Amino acid sequence: MTHWVDRAVAAEAEVLRLQAVVDDLTVNPRDEHHTLDELYQYRMLYNAFAVNAWAAADTHPVVKSWTHADGEPCFGGGWFIVVATLPTGQVSNHYRAEHWDLFRIPEGIPPIYDFQSPAIAADRMLASLRTKEHTHDA
C-alpha cells in the first residue's frame, strides 16, 4: 500500500510542477530561446536605434506622440506612439511611457494612421531595405 501512496504523492507533485510550467508559459510565452517579453524588448530597442539614427541623419521623418493624429491618448494614456515615414509608407509602434526617453526623436502630431497591419508594415520595411539607398551599392 505504501508503494501506491508514494507513487500517488509523486504523481500529484509532478502534476503540480507541470501546471506551474503551463501557467508560466501562458503568462509569458516563449520559443526555445526567448520569452515573448524578451522579444518585445529587443524589438523596441532595435526600433529606438533605427528611429534615433534616422532622426539624427534626417533620412526619414520620425515622430513620437502621447496621442494619435485625432488627439486621442494612445490606449487611453500611459502609452505613446512612434511613427516613421519610409519611402514605402509609414510604420508605427506603441510603447509604454517609461520608454519615452529611449526615443530621441521629435515630438509632434503623428501622421494620420493608414490602417497598416503588422504584415503591411513589415512589407514596407522590407521593400525599403531592398531599395538602392539601403544597399552597399548606394
Helix content: 40-55%
Number of helices: 3
Give me the Rg, rounded. 22 Å
Poorly predicted runs of 5 or more residues: none
Descriptive key words:
single chain; 138 residues; alpha+beta; 2 domains; 3-stranded antiparallel sheet; 3 helices
Commentary on this structure:
The protein is α+β, with helices and mostly antiparallel strands and 138 residues long. The protein has two domains: 1-30; 36-134, no CATH class. It is built from three helices and three strands, in the order H-H-E-E-E-H. The protein has helices spanning 2-27, 36-57, 118-129, and strands spanning 62-65, 79-86, 89-96. It has a three-stranded antiparallel sheet. A hairpin with a 2-residue loop joins strand 2 (79-86) and strand 3 (89-96). It starts with a helix and ends in a 9-residue tail after the last helix. The mean pLDDT is 87.
